[in-house]
Design brief:
The chain is of the alpha+beta class. The chain has helices at residues 3-27, 34-41, 56-59, 62-68, 84-91, 122-140, 158-169, 174-184, 195-205, 210-218, 220-235, 257-272, and strands at residues 44-45, 103-104, 111-117, 144-150, 240-241, 243-246, 249-252. The radius of gyration is 21 Å and the shape is globular.
C-alpha cells in the first residue's frame, strides 16, 4: 500500500467513524449552551447533568444564529429555531390536553408556551411576579396557552412544592396555588417549604379539601411524577429554570416581560402567516 493509499484509507476510516458518531450526537441532548446561557441571562441551574455537544444556537441557520447573538438592546424577541431535531424535542413537551389543570388558555391558541419552573427558583419568582401578569390579556383573548412543567431541583424542598402543585391541580386550583406561592416568595432568595406551609398556601388558594390535598401531595405516585418530570427534562438537556418553549422559540433563563410578550406575538404572527 502506498503512502497516499494509507492516507486515503485513514481518511476514509476517520470519515466513517465520524459518520457513525454524528447521528448519536444529533439525537443527544440539544441544549449544551443552555446552562451557561441561562446563568448569564438569569436562571437557576442544576449542575448534575453532563450536557451534549449540540444546541439550538449551534444547530440553527446562520441567519438565526446571527440574530440570536445580537445584544439584548438590539433584539426585541427570540427568533424561531430552525433545526428539525430541536423543534421535535420542543414540540414533544406540548401536552394540549383539554383536561390539563396545569395549563391555562385556549387549547387551540396559535401559541403554546411551555414553562419549566421551580417554586424555589428566584428567577422563576421574578417571572411569575413580572412576566405572567403582562401575558394575561394574551391568554384571555385566545392568543396564548401556557403549560406548566415541573423542574423541581433547586432546593431539597423543591420536589415537595411541586408535589403540592399537583395536589392543588387535582382540585382545580393549580394557578391559584401558583400565584399564592410566588406572591409570597422573595425574588432574591430560595424559599424552603414544609408540609404545613404548603397546606397554608393551599388554603390561601381556596383548595376545598385540605386533607385530600395533603394526602395527594405525599402520595408516592405524586413523588414519582415529579421525579420523572425532572428526569425527562434533563434527558432533553433542559437543566435551568425558567426555560420557555414558545412555539418555535426557545428562551433559556429569565427575560423581561416585553421580550417574552414580543416573542409570543411574533410566534402568533408566524403561526397564521
Amino acid at each position: 500500500m502506498t503512502t497516499n493509499d494509507a492516507k486515503a484509507s485513514s481518511t476514509s476510516k476517520k470519515k466513517t467513524d465520524t459518520d457513525r458518531f454524528q447521528p448519536n450526537v444529533y439525537k443527544t441532548l440539544f441544549l449544551v449552551t443552555a446552562p451557561v446561557t441561562a446563568m448569564l441571562a438569569g436562571a437557576c441551574v442544576w449542575m448534575g447533568v453532563q450536557l451534549s455537544s449540540t444546541s439550538p444556537a449551534s444547530q440553527a441557520t446562520p441567519a438565526a444564529t446571527a440574530s440570536s447573538q445580537l445584544p439584548a438592546a438590539e433584539q426585541s424577541a427570540e427568533p424561531s429555531q430552525t433545526n428539525p431535531n430541536n423543534l421535535s424535542i420542543m414540540s414533544s413537551f406540548i401536552r394540549h390536553d383539554a383536561g390539563d389543570q396545569q395549563a391555562k388558555g385556549d387549547i387551540n391558541a396559535p401559541v403554546t408556551m411551555v414553562v419549566f419552573s421551580d417554586f424555589a427558583c428566584p428567577y422563576c419568582t421574578k417571572f411569575a411576579q413580572q412576566v405572567d401578569p403582562a401575558l394575561a390579556d394574551l391568554v384571555e383573548d385566545g392568543t396564548l396557552r401556557i403549560e406548566w412543567y415541573d423542574l423541581a431541583q433547586i432546593t431539597e424542598t423543591s420536589p415537595l412544592a411541586a408535589q403540592a402543585g399537583i395536589a392543588a391541580a387535582e382540585q382545580g386550583k393549580f394557578w391559584e396555588f401558583h400565584d399564592a406561592v410566588y406572591a409570597a416568595a422573595d425574588p432574591s432568595g430560595h424559599p424552603q417549604y414544609s408540609e404545613q406551609s404548603l397546606v397554608d398556601f393551599a388554603a390561601t388558594a381556596g383548595v376545598p379539601d385540605l386533607d385530600k390535598f395533603r394526602a395527594t401531595m405525599l402520595d408516592p405516585m405524586t413523588v414519582t411524577k415529579v421525579a420523572s418530570a425532572k428526569d425527562q427534562a434533563h434527558q432533553a438537556g433542559i437543566t435551568g429554570t425558567p426555560t420557555l418553549f414558545i412555539n418555535k422559540a426557545y428562551i433559556p433563563g429569565f427575560r423581561d416581560a416585553s421580550y417574552v410578550r414580543n416573542t409570543v406575538l411574533a410566534q402568533a404572527a408566524e403561526a397564521v402567516s
